[in-house]
Write a structure and sequence with these properties.
Layout lengths: L2 E5 L3 H13 L3 E5 L2 H10 L4 E5 L7 H11 L5 E5 L4 H10 L3 E4 L4 H17 L5 E4 L2 E4 L4 E4 L2 E2 L4 H12 L7 H8 L8 H19 L5 E3 L3 E3 L1
Parallel strand pairs: 1-2, 1-3, 3-4, 4-5
Antiparallel strand pairs: 6-7, 7-8, 8-9, 10-11
Helix pairs in contact: 2-3, 4-8, 6-8
């Protein structure tokens, strides 16, 4: 079963999450502070991270940056009592794959975890695609530009996979959200926009060309 890393400093919440996901059949590694959690991330075979933002010693944004410096592959879901849109966008731009506001429903959290893991698994079974300078090899789960590796988060990879599979297709925000997140679209435009912005910037930095075109009022296409 997948290995979950939970980093949450409120002991009751940590215990609840640990107990709940163990009952669901997951292998759970739970920590009350960021330093221990980050050490576990670097040493254990983690498949997904549930990360609180407000933590002692080292904050969630610092942990997220260090995790993303190590790997872009492992899905990271942020937990926070902060529900401001700007905060969500900032963490998505730092490399988080999803963001859930406290208090949350355990069923919704479980569904989001399953979706992230399912999407990550799917990425390893698709064939190879190419578009101009970009090559996506889902067998090795890598993206290269002119032969040079391009580091993407799991969500950015999923978006690029949508575009590169159908390079002339116009995708609405709802279509992208329901395809990549595999959940119904509830007008969460900011989540889609933030990840598109990240992907576009990485492609432009690597090629000098943003590749992803915004069609005002309609959506996006490669």
């Amino acid at each position: 079963m997948p290995h979950l890393l939970i980093i949450e400093d409120i002991e009751d919440v940590n215990d609840m999450l640990c107990h709940f996901f163990k009952q669901q059949g997951y292998t759970v590694h739970a920590y009350l502070n960021g330093m221990d959690g980050l050490k576990a991330f670097k040493e254990l075979p983690i498949d997904l991270v549930i990360l609180d933002i407000m933590l002692p010693y080292i904050t969630g944004d610092q942990i997220l940056k260090e995790m993303r410096a190590k790997t872009e592959d492992i899905p990271i879901l942020m937990l926070s009592a902060k529900d401001e849109v700007r905060t969500k966008i900032d963490f998505l731009k730092l490399g988080a794959d999803d963001y859930l506001t406290k208090p949350f429903d355990l069923g919704e959290l479980a569904a989001r975890v399953e979706t992230l893991l399912r999407r990550y698994k799917k990425m390893t079974t698709n064939p190879t695609f190419a578009y101009e300078q970009i090559r996506l090899d889902a067998v090795t789960k890598t993206v290269t530009v002119n032969g040079e590796p391009l580091s993407l988060t799991a969500t950015e990879y999923g978006l690029l996979l949508c575009f590169i599979q159908q390079p002339t297709q116009l995708f609405t925000k709802a279509t992208l959200y329901e395809t990549v997140w595999e959940t119904p679209f509830f007008a969460e435009d900011d989540i889609v926009k933030a990840h598109i912005s990240n992907l576009r910037k990485k492609l432009k930095d690597a090629t000098g060309k943003s590749y992803i075109e915004t069609i005002r009022g309609l959506g996006y296409r490669l």
